[in-house]
Amino acid sequence: MKDLLLLSLNAILIENVILVKCIGICPFLGVAKKTSTACGMGLAVLFVVTFSSFVTWLFQHWVLAPLGLEYLQTVAFILIIASLVQLTEMVLKRFMPPLYEALGIYLPLITTNCAVLYAALNGARDMGSLFSATVNGFMTAAGFLLALLLFNGVHQRLQQCEFPPSLKGVPAELISAGLLSMAFMGFQGFSL
Amino acid sequence: MGVFHMILNATVVLGIAGACMGVLLALASKRLAVKEDPKLARLTEALPGANCGACGRSGCRNMAEQLAQGKASPNDCPLTSESNREEICRILDIAPERRDSLCAQILCSGTQELAPLRFEYTGLRDCRAAMRFGGGNKACPYGCLGYGSCAAVCPANAIVLLNGIATVDRSRCLGCGLCVEACPKHLIRLLPAELAFRVGCQNPEKGVEVRKVCQVGCISCGICQKNCPADAITMENGVAVIDQARCTHCGLCAEKCPRKVIWCLKDPVAAPTKEEENNDAVLSE
After folding, report:
1. Domain count of chain B?
2. Under 8 Å CB-to-CB from A18, ≥6 apart: which residues?
3. Contact A158/A173 with Cβ under 8 angstroms?
4. pLDDT at residue B60 above 70?
5. Do the interacting molecules here have an ipTM over 0.95?
6. Are B17 and A80 within 8 A, CB to CB?
7. How many CB pairs under 8 A join A and B?
8. Domain membership flag for residue B24
9. Could you tell me the CA-to-CA distances from B224 to B204, B205, B208, B250, B262 in Å, in that order?
10. Are B47 and B123 in the same domain?
């Protein structure tokens, strides 16, 4: 139990996928403008990452490792993630139309999201058991969702501020994203 | 041998994994197929499929869904042709509404022979990029730069660059208005497609200033206004403006214009002058 708690804390805060590892910056900057889209993207990632961490861990330990093909990790995982996203889309469309509608365009976009690949690679490489790999995936995605929501709040504040013309828009966003990232460096002090 | 095995292993494993995923997806798509509204496929077929976003939806598919749910009007799509719009109305079982068809018009006639350039521009072939150099290299600060930012966004390839300025092929123009937003000089207007005559200039300066930078620009002399039998022409912001509702298509303004900047877009009632014929030929090209 303690291990799982530490694992979660580590995945959400200390090694936050966006703000510490700087992975998945594109949706972070693009989708965080509205709360609804930030939630949609975050939930879609949560869904897919958990699922794909589970499958990729199995693939890594049952197929790639016994055959000595660990170097195929990246390409094989991309293949798996892409198919999983497609499959997820179909399942959702069939059985959970409201959720499918809510996630909308973000679900297919995840195919090319590097945060998903990061979580899969990380889980398959470093996690000892299938369960901890899945939890790690879920918590990494939770960190992603947290970062999106935090930045969404920052973005809404930014819109009410007066900026010099040269800093308006993207530069201001990037600077505030950097400040947010520096705030997360504080968590590095927890040596777990 | 080792390398050969490595390659073979990798290929076989990835191949099998890929095939498994493919079969799985194929089965899933059969098993999990959702019965969708049969209208949807027909609506998607009738929409232009350009995914331009001019209707405000995220693509034609989304537009079709909204149409089927009654959340969109067939008129929201500016690209659909008249026959396709009727088809959509038939599918949805609603009465077609009349829509004023619009056509993009470029308010500049200064081709490279007629409007001089201030300097040689060799940068990126894009109007917005050219604008950065002191507002572009055309002597007239209001004129068309002719680097085709409008042509690049046109979904129907209706804008051609001819003699250094953009011209609209009216038969192809769909009136979507994407070029209006793309033009950094704000030169393009959506005008009624029935318009017969138009003034091809938007330079608001006095005649003396206009003469310095262009041989065709409107000098706001008011001759067209005085000659118009229907009082359809007014002077606004230093250029002549033709009121479409009053215009009787007589063609007198184009004939009397000393700068030949009033262009005939359709056959006028009176016989066209030679210049008008030339201009017509340029436009229809």
Report:
1. 2
2. A24, A25, A28, A115, A143, A144, A147, A148
3. yes
4. yes
5. no
6. yes
7. 43
8. no
9. 16, 18, 18, 12, 9
10. no
Of A44, A79, A149, A148, the C-alpha closest to B17 is: A79
**Nearest chain B residue (CA) to A75:** B14
B104 sits in which H/E element: strand B102-106
Query: Do B263 and B146 fall into the same domain?
Result: yes
Alpha carbon A88 to chain centroid, angstroms: 16
**Residue B33 per-residue DSSP state:** P
Q: Name the residue range of residue B201's domain.
A: 102-284
Tell me which DSSP letter residue B52 carries: -
Give every residue of chain A whose pLDDT is below 70, as ranges.
104, 191-192
Angle between helices A73-95 and A35-59 (to 10 degrees): 120
- Cβ B97 vs Cβ B181: under 8 Å: no
The answer, for B15 touching chain A at a CB cutoff of 8 Å, is: no
Q: How far apart are CA B46 and CA B181, in angstroms?
A: 26
pTM across the whole model: 0.55
Q: Does A58 touch chain B (CB under 8 A)?
A: no
What tokens does B57 get?
């939806």
The structure tokens listed for A7 are 């694992």
Q: Are residues B170 and B245 in the same domain?
A: yes
Residue of B nearest to A56 (CA): B17
Q: Is residue B25 part of a domain?
A: no
Residue B176 domain flag: yes
